[in-house]
Amino acid sequence: MQYADTRRRGAAHLAAGLGLALALSGCTLLGADDEPTPDQQNPQDSAGETSETSPQNAEVVLVTHESFTLPDEVLAGFTEQTGYQVVVQASADAGALTNQLVLTKGSPIGDAVFGIDNTFASRAVNEGVLTAYSPSDLPPEVSEHALPGEAADYLTPIDYGDVCVNIDDAWFEAEGIEPPQTLADLTDPTYADLFVTSGASSSSPGLAFLIATIGEFGADGWQGYWRDLMANGAVITSGWSDSYGVDFTFSGGDRPIVLSYASSPPFTIPEGGEEPTTSALLDTCFRQVEYAGVLEGAANPEGAQALVDYLLTDEVQAAIPDAMFVYPVTDVELPELWAQWADVAPEPIQVDPELIEESREDWVREWADITTG
Amino acid sequence: MGRHHHRLAPARLIPARVVPAVGVTLLALLPLAFLAVFFVLPVGGMLVRGFYPDGAWDLSGVGEVLGRDRTTRVLGFTIGMATLGTALTLLLGLPLAFVLYRLVFPGRALLRAIVVMPFVLPTVVVGVMFRALLSSGGPLGFLGWDRSWLAILLAFVFFNLAVVVRTVGGMWEGLDRRAEESAAALGASPVHVFRTVTLPALLPSIVSAGTLVFLFCSTAFGVVLTLGGLRYGTIESEIYLLTTEFLDLQGAAVLSVIQLIAVVVMLALAARARSRSEATTDRAAARSVARAPRGSDAPLLVIAGLVVAFVLTPVLTLVARSLRGGSGWTLEHYRALADPSATTAMRVSILEAVQNSVSTAVDATIIAMVLGVCVSIVVSRRPRRAGARRLVSVLDGAFMLPLGISAVTVGFGFLITLDRPPLDLRTSAVLVPIAQALVALPLVVRTITPVLRSVDPRIRQAAAALGAGPLRAAWTAEGPVLGRPLLAATGFAFAVSLGEFGATSFLARPDRPTVPVMIYELIGRPGTDNMGMALAASVVLSLLTVSVMGLVERLRVGSVGSF
């Protein structure tokens, strides 16, 4: 390395690089106003003045979690139908989302919310962060997923997913071991050191799984179950990506039993293969339903209502499986792979949302004490 | 001289010290206002919510939270791990600092850039890399360290080596060798020379780096969660849990205050060590003393080689895994990155995400540089009065605070405090670069301040005496040495902003993913393709940051990223 020589060139490179970076970046702070797109505009810029006159160009701010995504053309369809533009404000998971809404009650950061699930729905309703709105004449298959009691007036079901134990069938076949079927099986010595799950305190499928075990073994039985599970060598990771992506045998790990979703198997069809090499245990599932609603104090309540309605249209419902890996609540056609390989649980484990809201904190604390001992 | 004499007269009408004092105060106002609005206000807001919940002070929870078994355990684990992490990082970092800053050999600049890389990588990537390495199927699975505290310890070392190597290395490079040579000439053994001459001279920078590493270790969050598999809680992960899951703001506030006190103590220690180290630098900045390696350096070279291998192992694992597909080696994940229709999980291609990252990082860098230069000028002045001097060092420390405070506290704080016009910024796209600038700002200040302090104030005074206004005088004296540090700090701030994820992830953000956000979302989706793409995107991000740091390294500013 010739230092004296390269040093000057390095400085020139850096200068050139920064120049390039500036050019690449196009719209930085200074230029941000030049090319507003529906997704990135600051709602304060124009919403106030235009929404009262005509919906043309008025905005609806949708507060949601980080997993929300819909194809651009689907979002554009909403603007075509109603004249409103959607501005997406995405952050954190369902729990953090709900708590953000509670914290900002009275001065909400948007008009509509999508992504509150049935493990947090009661908190949102009880804390008064929502205003009553539900699309008229919901089809029966949608009402089936509605929250019990008055809460149904505040939150409309949009999609659902079953959180279930998944197994690597290929692994069990190769080892010549009969795969497990139920939650109780997981504490059997046959399946010692084979199960990995994500934690209830740090991941939403983890919380759903804890609730499933409470639904299955009761308010006084689940603690014993979890002690047995831990004694049988279960391990807990912080999140789904970790347990599924690193520890699951399908991804090259050493654990053939993992907590995932009923919709995961279609993604395990090998290249050139015909069928998935993994499957979901449908007797172990807890159903997570995701809801949308209108926020109390919304600047644009009409737009928010229109958006909730739109989320139930065929356009959105049909796009949901591919975009968000969950099932639509209406009877739209499913993508082929889903129709063929992603069965939902016929009888998912049920726990009353009000009971979840009352006890969630105690459960998670107790769970943490048992599992982190 | 005589010809200029008449010009001196008007300047005397205003006492010479007053003008700079006013200017310096004005310069301090902008960054202070920024800190007040984007740090003090949100953090204060969260603390008030915790301690003053329904319009009345309620401190009953303090005893209750402190009395919990869990709190004690979390505090113990946090302090224990931070202590171990700091000790090990220093132990491995010192030989590496020696090799990279006292010896001359080909490839040294590249190695220096590589060592800094972990510091600017997003934790989510590092977490997955370490898990892939240590899990029982991974190359180091035989160690059995997966999900153990040892894995967390390794990650602490991995992340913080840069702090030790740059801080101590920068100091070591400028250390005058004559004292060591004299001691050796008088018959002292190399070990003895190190203990009696070198170590005392380095000690301030070692203490300074050590306190910072301790601070980073004790506030580490993502990596503890990922690698510890929830078995281990730290104060930071507990604050996150209490806030986002339980909405137990009182419990979170109690822990935040404990953390705040600890951070202030650490920063005060670091500042004291630093002021001593700068005094030493002034005396010794005589000549560069790096030399070619010789036989007696072999043990240190071996240790340094092992440490570099340790840094490279997870990175190379990542690269290898990003090149593996269903049917062997392949570039398919990289090709998929450029193709927005490759996965339904993403609405944009990597190119767009890189563009988003770059434009956000440019904004963050501009903010950090403007504020950083203001702060550096202010804190590099050495007022004669003790009170003013103390004020300057408090100001210096204040801008380090955001490094040590839970991102979730700041993020949620934004939501509840900046919620009405004219400052309803909660949903503004501006918040992301602002959050990144808060992270980069201390690094900018720590890069530029030592350079400014190294300029003899008498040069400025002389310029002023010759009739230059305060700005002109400062520019004449300090301008010539500032060019490179400014460029280097810009590059460093840019690299840090590129990889920043923690603060960004807590903010309500527009649907415009940066590369770290994209990686995070890809990792959270089913399908091996998504995982492959996440790994490929991580490699792209690492290349970006290493290139930027490589260019910074070419500028050879010893103080970049040192504390």
Structural overview:
The complex is a heterodimer of chains A (373) and B (563). In chain A, strands 1, 2, 3, 4, 5, 6, 7, 8, 9, 10 and 11 form an 11-stranded mixed beta sheet that branches. In chain A, strand 1, helix 3 and strand 2 form a beta-alpha-beta unit. The N terminus of chain A is likely disordered. Chain A starts with a helix and ends with a helix. The relative contact order of chain A is 0.16. Chain A has 373 residues and is α/β, with parallel strands linked by helices. Chain A has 14 helices and 11 strands. In chain A, helix 9 packs parallel to helix 14. Chain B is mainly alpha-helical. The longest helix of chain B has 36 residues. Chain B starts with a helix and ends in a 9-residue tail after the last helix. Chain B contains 23 helices and 2 strands. The N terminus of chain B is likely disordered. In chain B, helix 4 packs across helix 9, helix 6 crosses helix 13 and helix 15 packs antiparallel against helix 16. The chains are: A alpha/beta (373), B mainly alpha (563).
